[in-house]
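Running this now, will post back.
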Amino acid sequence: MTTAAMNPTTDPTTDLTTDPAAKPAVSPATERPVPGWALRTVRALPLLALPVCLWRLPFGFGFQMGMDMPREDLSLWVTVPYVLALSLLSEAFALLCAGLVRPWGERVPAWVVVAAGTMAGGAFTALAVQWVLTTFELAGFQEVDFVNGWWRALAAVTSGLFVLWGPLILALTYAYHRRRRA
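Update: finished.
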């Protein structure tokens, strides 16, 4: 075996080896550098959604998760697919936010991404405002009663992580806009 066959050469224009079995060491770069905080935030979004996705799964099977309210008698054929679909969509949207920091997100016209990110971030921020008003019972909003304080605390922490989405998506969208503008 020759030395050239043992050490594949590197193509400086692509930063990939000419060996077809070799994989790139890093993902392809975006048009302009992405701030480190944005990369960390995009990685955190699915993790912020996960607790609330797991929290809502028992509701599909009729478990009230400590809520002191009458149980809804809906068929499992309705509630289980609904809750599973809602949880899967939440995680899918969290993963879709990666387009704000990845090259494939730059293939779409910037105005489309900025408009979608702003609308999604605004909607989730509105949910955050509603969560604050309800959780702290401000301005006449009231939370559902729980059988004890532990269930209330678990519900507040679980849903509290999810409401961070709105401001984070807005910050990511703004960073995307600044990076993509001429």
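The first helix runs from residue 3 to 6. More later if anyone needs it.
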